[in-house]
Amino acid sequence: MGFTSLTFEDAARQRSLKTVVWYPAPLGSHMVEHTASPIFVPFVAAKDAPVSDARERWPLVVLSHGNGGAAINMSWLGAHLAAHGFIVVSVDHPGNTYGDTSPEGYVRGWERPQDFTALLDGLLKDAVWGPRVDTERIGAAGHSMGGYTALALAGARLNLSPIANLCTAPDTREHPGCDELRDVDYSRIDMAVARASYKDSRVRAAFAMAPGMAGTYEARDVADIDVPVTLVLAKGDELMPHAQHGLHLAKLLPDATTVVLDDAAHFTFLPECTELGFKVAAMLCRDAMPGTRAASQARTRAEAVVFFQRTLDARR
What we know:
alpha/beta, Rossmann fold, ten-stranded mixed beta sheet, two-stranded antiparallel ribbon, 10 helices, globular
């Protein structure tokens, strides 16, 4: 597969959207290792290779990173989907990406689906990329707040009130899931704007891994979802306990496919860690059962390929 970087400007919101794109490349393209971060293992791809001409148009998956993460660190899934016939585009969400994040940037999660709506507008108008995308076969995927983002593009709404109450109350503000969120001035947040719909009708399927804010949804917040959904949940999720979060959301989405990874924790959906990663970023390298990240990711990748092949009919 190939990979490259693109930038699109969202003039209306004054946001510069820096992206990473993985895509099918011609057979024989020169594949080399690329290091996204010294704490994570490298991925293999052909930098700036041409897009394969095996098909005129390819299905597209937009892929969203978690809070404070980075587009490039979704390579473990993006490159795999590209190898199975998808163009995959991930974006560094301004205000909530590595090197550019803040408590308010975190809580303003409703900006994230709008990033992808603007990105799709730009990508589909692009002279090079637009003609290569099958506009009838677009899906969304993401991890943590990226999982929320994928669901938001499918019609989910963000309910911040329970977070504001939990993370500012004296008895509960020290909950580990409130890191950063406890420092937000919620009086500056328009809850109606936060809970509005940011559904994009071009998105035909959503694949959400350990989706953020999963425990805050009410039935009305997911009532507008009318496309296929797969939830991949981490039974050992230390930030969002499984029963109160993942399973709560799964009950609200009875038509969704729910996959529970018994050995996974919240950050299992980041790349495998290097020796340095285990030393300097232990939290990001923790799995519920040590040494199982590769297996959990292999299961997740397989589920994603089957899901998007089925829902986007990627083999036609």
